[in-house]
């Protein structure tokens, strides 16, 4: 069954620099709204408003906790940190969009224009690392939303988190599609010298025109490749994540992306296929109909083939790589291309033995 936008949220014209112009109702909404023509041109006025650029609003939050624990066998880390909720990159395929529903905000336009910043992240991290019960394990930064999205340039919350990890000699990994990570090469290189840092740069396409449609405010493809080079030159282990692979959209580029990654110095290759949980499904299909109407049916047919006949299957072991013949073909293409390019390594093991807990405060030190 094809998911559709709610009738109260018709698909308006695209917004420049945004992944979707739609403030789709989230799954917890108790009220619904329908457009009504009152004879005064209200619908025309609404359409005109939808074409205006949507400004980004930063909502400051004092987080009660920072370290999130993971129990999924699909990801290679137990702990994660996300300094921000929502992401201005606006990637239409982002599987984290539905998390904005818990904030009573739309997983559509609100997700990329209303960014929650955990302004006390460094403070909370120190408190959690100082607990006597804490046992060090490599922590992933940016597992849900990009820690180097545009607002980070001004707020520097991710930088503060890295400074805490540096002082504590704590290992970490980072996933990003932003060249903003280059700002922190000093901290990354220091941690990498102790075998305590690894970075994965996501590269979805080499086509700048497609990138502007898929992920409008993320770094351009050539800048991400340059970031891979600069990380490698600084001695930071770096891999490339070809993700998500979307049939007939960026899937034809698999081999070229891996070749470009190898030329830039990537030591490992990872990938995932398109995932459409909850509200991401209608948002992506609206985007697909808007930009690629002539191939929308074929794209979704192969997406469903990889997810057991459904738009998305959340089953562990299947949700990220898919299943079936098409998924197997993608897996083989990725492996063979990486092997041809001489990339057969995996993410390096990180050292936890040098961890030094932060000081727990002067008053506690007296006892």
Automatic annotation (TrEMBL):
Domain of life, source organism: Bacteria
SUPFAM superfamilies: Radical SAM enzymes (SSF102114)
InterPro entries to which the protein is assigned, alphabetical: Elp3/MiaA/NifB-like_rSAM, MJ0683-like, rSAM, rSAM_sf
Gene3D superfamilies, A to Z: 3.80.30.30
Matches recorded under SMART domains: Elp3
UniProt domain Radical SAM core: residue ranges: 73-310
UniProt keyword annotations, A-Z: Iron, Iron-sulfur, Metal-binding
Protein name: PA0069 family radical SAM protein
Organism the protein comes from: Caldimonas aquatica
